[in-house]
Fold these 3 entries.
Entry 1:
Amino acid sequence: MENLSIGQYDLIYNAFSFGFATLAAATLFFWLGISQVKPQYKTALVVTGLVTFIAAYHYWRIGQSWSDAYTLVDGVHVPTEMAFNAAYRYVDWLLTVPLLLVELILVMSLTRSETVKRATSLGLAALLMVALGYPGEVSDSNNVRWLFGLLSMIPFLWIVYQLYVGLGTAIANQPENARGLVSLARNVVVVSWLFYPVVYFAGAIGLEGATATVIVEVGYTVADIIAKAGFGVLIYLIAVRKSEEPTQDGRAKAVPAE
Amino acid sequence: MENLSIGQYDLIYNAFSFGFATLAAATLFFWLGISQVKPQYKTALVVTGLVTFIAAYHYWRIGQSWSDAYTLVDGVHVPTEMAFNAAYRYVDWLLTVPLLLVELILVMSLTRSETVKRATSLGLAALLMVALGYPGEVSDSNNVRWLFGLLSMIPFLWIVYQLYVGLGTAIANQPENARGLVSLARNVVVVSWLFYPVVYFAGAIGLEGATATVIVEVGYTVADIIAKAGFGVLIYLIAVRKSEEPTQDGRAKAVPAE
């Protein structure tokens, strides 16, 4: 850990607080929307809110750990003995990244066996991807960071393949008023997840010191907000669209869920 | 209490935080699912969420107690005067272990008299099992640990007998689409509960020091997550399955709960 200027420390601290507020608000938005969708889409919104709930909890803890990890000495933030707990992010991802893929599968309303099969295989691949990243994240060696970072890309690429090829037909068979949104949600998963390796490898290409800390912490926070709250809004919109019934003039009509 | 390396201390700390996050998220999942099942299964989901709620509260407290129990001196975690409060686990189990068995009985929707009889006898046996374990857990003597550990196995074996023999007919009479899951839930109770004596007797077979602390704390945490959140997901799935109405073509159809 290195010294940080007041501006650098505050930028990261405020990013964490912003992350907590956004994710907590998103959680309430998704859960308050449950009554507005048809029964078969309720579980998708429950899980969408669980993801942001778990992430909000971890941003709260991350903010506390950040406060404990530095002390202000003569206008400079100096590391204390309490190291910043980077494991919170990985514990969070272990839970939330598989659930993010489950959200997408649930809102597609496939058959039960297809849902179980897809959710299980994608979830396990996501778990493996996160678990493989951790040893590299906490290592001081750039070689170890590269090794585990690249190993972690294998399940990532498999997930991308599944999302575009494995789920291709299922997405093409979505109702017309939701097909574009489901396809967009799939793209948001892949694009927002690309942030993570960029931030991860920023540490491996020799970027060091206070600037690297700012890039890593703010970068992961922005990526988490897009991948969880932003992606969740798309899941919500898909669930609402698919709960509408088409009227005779071709326009969709909202129906009460119960 | 012995000194712990930063890695050992952090592993346990992060396991407790992971336990809290998982159990809190599971609680919300079960309670948000209440509206999705038929009236006769709602109480099962209420109780399932109570178990994980009580456990989440205790993991929060356990995490705080863990922080208070150690202080960092020259890169080593040294015990403070505040001993880690192991009683939180037993207070938790006193409440949650009987309720876990009540969940299973409730989701089986037996007759009222059968439900009361089974829930009372299994709940009391579980209470006795937990209460008998505690004097051994806090004793410094291996003999006392063995004595109470073995005494505690008597109600445990009675519970296992009841789950396989006493409830055998009731499980065989479950609706076809839920029978496999009920049987699986029963097996998960027994298998996940076997973790506890293994961890418990790890202290009695002479495993000591920092490694024993890591095994005990991480082991109990993993067992709690499987026995409460994992088992709860099975109860949730059983309640959802049994709330479905079969359609003419034999496939189950989701029905709104209200």
Entry 2:
Amino acid sequence: MQYLKKSFEGMEPYFSKEITDGIVLNANEAPYLPPKPILEEFNNRIKCLNFNRYPDMQNTKLCEAIAKKYQISKENVTCGVGSDELLEVTFRATLEPNDVVLSFSPSFSMYKVFTELHNAKFIGIDFNDDLSFDVDAMLKKIKENNPKLVLICSPNNPTGAILTQSEIIRIVTNTNALVLLDLAYVDFAKEDPTYLALKYNNLIAYRTFSKAMALASIRCGYAISNSNNIDMINAVKAPYSLSIPSQILSELAISNYDLYKENINNVISERDNLYSNLKKLGINVYPSEANFIYVKMDKKIYDGLLENKIYIRAFTDEIYRITVGLKEENEKLLKVVRKYAK
Amino acid sequence: MQYLKKSFEGMEPYFSKEITDGIVLNANEAPYLPPKPILEEFNNRIKCLNFNRYPDMQNTKLCEAIAKKYQISKENVTCGVGSDELLEVTFRATLEPNDVVLSFSPSFSMYKVFTELHNAKFIGIDFNDDLSFDVDAMLKKIKENNPKLVLICSPNNPTGAILTQSEIIRIVTNTNALVLLDLAYVDFAKEDPTYLALKYNNLIAYRTFSKAMALASIRCGYAISNSNNIDMINAVKAPYSLSIPSQILSELAISNYDLYKENINNVISERDNLYSNLKKLGINVYPSEANFIYVKMDKKIYDGLLENKIYIRAFTDEIYRITVGLKEENEKLLKVVRKYAK
């Protein structure tokens, strides 16, 4: 790659093999489709779409629908190609070389990638032994490092733990940094701290249609904050990024959020079942408020799952993340675990 | 915007008002829809789509369909959210602060924006008086400035002129820079130099589904080059950027390119009609091989068009770009021009 700039040396294309057969529990996707009335209305609208025209670059209707759901103004909302794009744009808008980015660790792997893309310094803060958040350690690191950005993923990917609202507030009010609150999995949690992003000037909440809304295929996410922070993202973001079909489908999904409740509740109860069953089988499991469970277990179990075409996410030879699937998928997984856990 | 970094100071959100009524000839969109068989097949495939799953991040089927059309390997192709994304990623992958980027000027406005985003130096090279490309001036600037990137848009937006293949080769073989050849409008031109991007190591061709393919709504573009350059773009590009609906529709479009030929030929003959009619009316027009015409004319004509809800692109009070529309749209435009040109 002769033209790649020096600071990017060693970067390689990211490659992931598409799985076309088996039980896919490795990407924290919803195991269900969007509710039928949403898809039917989408199919109707697609039929008379002006495919030859550029999208509305302000995503006006979608921003309005999101604003309506949270009872906020559309000036407090912006949309992007997944919350990834909006996170990356925020890094790009704010980070100068050698700035410090703090994050609990392990967390969403792109935080470190985005930091390094901008030649900034990433510091990860370990979780407590029970994988709860160590807020004191974060506050100490904030004092020591004067970070430009603080990342919080809650429920945390891949561990599943949450920060309480008072813990979030404690971090936000004890730093001058901009705090990025990634709420990708919050629909599966007991509390929703999104509204805090309008109470504190240095807080942006990021949400996605890729998880609970069952729309990973269309790559759409949004950010909520005061209009200054939203303007900053919009100033740096590429115009025209969201396709019209993605805008339409997301708008229908958020406007019909209630239709998802049954599906979401099913995942929550399946998650809690899976947790107790794995525990009974002697697997080290950690409490989760997301649609996945973080486990420590023997590699032979993972190999057994693979052999049975059940795909979970492997971090090391003993650390894995299992996305909660449909009832029958989880049962099949448990059957295999039972066989190999002995 | 308190958190925006200093080097981005002055950046503002880009705002464009959506036009919902009238004749839209300001964005170089196709005036026709994609051919019916393509849309019908798309509607069928959408009905059974796994909306809850992430897209194939390698865009495998789409890359294969593009590779098939050009009889090249899929390793020579990558796709993105419009060719804009791929151009921006190439700038990001290669530019260090103070690097020089050369482009003919005026050209696609984002080249300068992307350059400045990376704190590099943009140098624009004027066209000849008849708005043909001044290749000698480009070669002189290459010698003087040792650029990192050279941008060529052919047919050029907004002027419509093209560089011949031998002129492109002359530039490519006289620089160490990476040459980015933006072919967004090439379907409307006499020659297609895309294949040159596999003959010269320092050349990447960029193409889009937004113009002749009548798919601006779905934001899809692609780049063609040797696998080293394609790997470089893939290494820096965000994974998962293209939605599944966008991948499917683009794949159908490129696989059925022949179905577009009649539409494309109509635009070409409408363009040539519009050109001669505008000339007859005493308007300064420039030869174009794209789906638009660059004109110098009195502002009162532009105001008259606006009054009649005919929207063209204004660069200054005397320089405009008119996208070629449907026959009846062009006739309406000519009628208004005739009235105000006197």
Entry 3:
Amino acid sequence: MENFTDFVLTCPLPLEQYPQVLMAHGGGGKLMNQLISQMFAPTFQSTWHQSTLSQVIQHDAVALNLPNNKIAFTTDSYVIKPLFFPGGNIGSLAVYGTVNDLAMSGALPLYLSVGFIIEEGLPMETLWQIVQAMQKAAQETGVQIITGDTKVVDRGKGDGIFINTAGIGIIEHDQIIAPPAVQVGDRLLLSGDIGRHGIAVMAQRQGLELETVITSDCAPLSNTVQALLTAGVKIHCLRDLTRGGLASAVNEIATVAGVDIHLEAGAIAVREDVQGACEILGFDPLYVANEGRFIAFVPADYADQALAILQKFNPDQNASIIGEVVSHSQGKSGLVTMTSQIGTSRIVDMLSGEQLPRIC
Amino acid sequence: MENFTDFVLTCPLPLEQYPQVLMAHGGGGKLMNQLISQMFAPTFQSTWHQSTLSQVIQHDAVALNLPNNKIAFTTDSYVIKPLFFPGGNIGSLAVYGTVNDLAMSGALPLYLSVGFIIEEGLPMETLWQIVQAMQKAAQETGVQIITGDTKVVDRGKGDGIFINTAGIGIIEHDQIIAPPAVQVGDRLLLSGDIGRHGIAVMAQRQGLELETVITSDCAPLSNTVQALLTAGVKIHCLRDLTRGGLASAVNEIATVAGVDIHLEAGAIAVREDVQGACEILGFDPLYVANEGRFIAFVPADYADQALAILQKFNPDQNASIIGEVVSHSQGKSGLVTMTSQIGTSRIVDMLSGEQLPRIC
């Protein structure tokens, strides 16, 4: 609960009257209307075009005129536990996560929908903090939260709050940014140190006492991607390193692209405190989720330019070139290998089963 | 569980190995990949453009080329209890509901995203039936389920399955179809008999033994709306009669449009068995949710043409003209009144508090 200093506004609903969310707040009647018109609409309003605002409140679907007709569309539900963690909460995560998925397809994120599934009894103040965090994240990333839905489920049939966001972005370039575009010889860039989000959440959940508080890397990636595109960097593939972490993302892309990928362990930044917590908790940082890190596959000629942009945008994150796409001499493609810092080589497999449940 | 006769396909996942959904099915590793690649992708595939299919499986966001750049965007989460009810299940509801929201803005529904929040332990066979129902509903309405997300929450922290769908439709006409367009003199049409969905769900939930099984009206509305538009009917506003029922929808529109609305009780169709069940359960059908009924505000000159189209599309639903928009002589606008079948007049207020929780 470290990160509440930003929330100075008073909850617009009378807390003494409605200290908790009731079933009726999702029932389609007066209380739901009050929640939408007094909390959601005024808070998200500043991200809305004035023209769409009235439509949102008054109608089920919102009409949009897009600047062009080539779009990206994505969705994610967020069920993270606990709802608040060092560096963010479920609200900021629900905005950044979907914005980042759009960014990874090379799209400029524009619009979000939001679906709340609230457990009866959630403190109204908690909802208010989450809603404000969403608004702040939306403003930071330049997206507008323009349509939504609210459902309330019985006490014991949910877990505080689940949030779904769906996003629309526009694609303004002609590049194909997807795993099949990855080619032998491509360099693999990593935008920063890994493992912080998963460890921040797990440490919070398990009440782990660490020397330093590990803060999630939860952050928007769209500005960095737009900077790469604007600079004319040729990009073959982008992927954010969420569930399954770096190892799973690289494995998935290697499989789909039908290539092998070789990584250099020494180039992959892991902060000392994160490494230490991983050892205590028994995790491999390669498989731990991040919420503000991505990998980029670029032709070798563009690698240095791309790295310079990553480093300029986030000077404290230790972005680096961590590997390269290699041709496969064996029968089966999709192999990911890694050279350790002492020179040995090993296979990096995909995550099997559950490692860190409900970290997003 | 009446409506399973359509589901003849065998679950593509080995049920003896995974009879229930595990936390790992949402963990970002091999089991989640298996669920997506063996169940979701092949099932939804037939609604996908071949070109988008590969992108969906391999990437977070899907890229779309829309036929034009004027779109409608909406979202809804579905938390209905029980998951299966006479006439449908949470899967068909999640497709029809969002398709209908798009249709109500006069858009042609094209694409859906789907976000599953599954409680650990949900029988895999149940998930499979729901997924098939979604696919069937998507085919029926001509929409494509093109991107998705899967989360699994701990046993006791959800309620079987919650589903979010977000939808994109294109707007091919130049009419403004929204509450502010409603004018004094407009006729109000109702597409069919009301109250069936809410009563079907409540009867199922409470184990009510009725003489006849009341079947939900759960159905897509997009074809009917497209027929109205294609025929050149001028439409001022459309609204589907979900949570809060007919009374809440009419009240909301009256308030936003700043008009009064007068209804004729005798013109509003309620089936005898629904009326009987409402009396047993203590509900007023005017406030009971529907999932396949809508109202349309049209200029008086278009009322008969519109009614003929509604009746032609659904000859057994008793579509009718149920009222008219009137000017208000009192200081406060937004008043909804109704003349009863014996000639008395009363105010129809908005639903206050909860009446039927979790019916969608």
